[in-house]
């Protein structure tokens, strides 16, 4: 497995927690792949980080895919549900503003 420099791959490489493998019917799986599940992917790689705040410092291995979309993975969005709630709230606010404006005009 290739070990990459984290800084040189920050644009395209995604940690496994940020991707989803795709089922045969082309829908994304619910959970992030494990290192073993992703091992056969041509983009499978890792980088190392040091947790310097722990005593003694610990080395952590982060498994990544260097080209998730090119390898047919689905990118996971942690904030997609938050964005849809915000959009709904904004639409409700706009409707409320329109309603208040119409009421002022009729008075």
What do these coordinates show?
- With 107 residues, this protein is an alpha+beta fold.
- It has two domains: 1-76, no CATH class; 79-107.
- Helix content is 29%, strand content 21%.
- It is built from two helices and five strands; from the N terminus they run ββαβββα.
- A hairpin with a 6-residue loop joins strand 3 and strand 4.
- The N and C termini lie far apart (72 Å).
The number of domains is: 2
Number of helical elements: 2
Widest sheet: strand ordering: 1-4-3
User: What percent of residues adopt helix (DSSP H or I)?
Assistant: 25-40%
End-to-end Cα distance, whole Å, is: 72 Å
Order of helices and strands: EEHEEEH
Overall pLDDT level: 78
Q: Which regions contain 5 or more consecutive residues with pLDDT less than 50?
A: 80-89, 97-104
Indicate the structural class.
alpha+beta
Share in β-strands: 15-25%
Number of strands: 5
**What general form does the structure show?**
elongated
What's the Cα radius of gyration? 22 Å
The largest β sheet comes out as:
3 strands, antiparallel
Protein traits:
107 residues; alpha+beta; three-stranded antiparallel beta sheet; two-stranded antiparallel ribbon; 2 helices; elongated
Quick recap of the structure?
This protein has 2 helices and 5 strands, in the order E-E-H-E-E-E-H. It has helices at 35-38, 80-106, and strands at 14-15, 19-20, 44-51, 58-65, 74-75.
Describe the protein's topology:
Blueprint: E1 14-15, E2 19-20, H1 35-38, E3 44-51, E4 58-65, E5 74-75, H2 80-106
Antiparallel strand pairs: 1-4, 2-5, 3-4
